[in-house]
Amino acid sequence: MSPPLIPVPVAVLVSGTGSNLQALIDGLPATGPARLVRVISSNAKAGALDRAHRAGIPTTFLTDPADPTEVLSALAGAELVVLAGYLKRVPIAVVAKLHLRMINIHPALLPAFGGAGMYGRRVHEGVLASGATVSGATIHYVDEEYDHGPIIAQWPVPVHARDTQQSLAARVLEAEHRLLPAVVTALAQLGVPRHPVRLFAAGSAFIGGDGIAIGFSA
Ligand code: GRF
Questions:
Q1: Which atom of ligand 1 lies at the shortest distance from residue 18's CA?
Q2: Is 84 near ligand 1, meaning CB less than 6 Å away?
Q3: pLDDT for 27-73, tens place per residue?
Q4: Residue nearest to atom 7 of ligand 1 (CA)
């Protein structure tokens, strides 16, 4: 599929370290179908803002993330919005306005281990406590509930018997970093459709070696 002539403008909402933002900065080619146009943070000290500055991407700090007018103004011009470690609730008016144009990445295989309060280490602790042998990354559309909208793509990783919260988190994060640029690229190539898209990995489902190709088909 040939990329659209005008790249899809992408805004990224962040609150923290921004390693997923970095994956987008590194993984979206300059001449590809998606272009990062703004990074918007709920946290003035977020490491993600430093990453954006280094990459020359304009940034906005939200003084009131609950104010739909402020959030919509920051997002003006974005065709696709990515929540990448964004810890604030997106105002309902913003969710409605960006229906099927706002996506979130979550560090587990939803619908398990998601919802209010399930972020950071709590997610991986929950997975380990459950005895599940598989976890992974999920990218889904944002709706009015935390971690709830239609799933776009998932990438599983094994949970090993000796895993700690940290080792599992690192394995899932690696999957996130592969998944996110691939999904943003695929959605942009499809023109950010106004219907829910499901993407399926074309390759091995587990990260277990070098050189695994990751591609998606709708
Ligand atoms: C990631 O695990 C993401 O899935 C979750 O928050 C974390 C953000 O990490 N929503 P980073 O800020 O991208 O490093």
A1: 12
A2: yes
A3: 999 899 999 999 999 999 999 999 999 999 999 999 999 999 999 99
A4: 85
Report cis status (omega within 30 of 0) of the bond before 196.
Answer: no
Q: 21: phi > 0 → left, psi -120 to 50 → alpha, else beta; which?
A: alpha
Taking each helix axis from N to C end, the angle separating 47-55 and 19-27, rounded to the nearest 10 degrees, works out to 20
The per-residue pLDDT for range 35-45, each reduced to its tens digit, is: 999 999 999 99
Q: What pLDDT is stored for residue 89 in this prediction? A: 95
Distance CA(3)–CA(107), nearest Å, equals: 29
Q: How many residues does the chain have?
A: 218
User: DSSP of 105-169, one letter per residue?
Assistant: EESS-TTTT-STT--THHHHHHHHHHT-SEEEEEEEE--SSTT-SPEEEEEEEE--TT--HHHHH
Q: How far is the CA of 19 from the centre of ligand 1 (A)?
A: 7
Instruction: For ligand 1, atom 9, name the residue with the nearest CA.
Output: 85
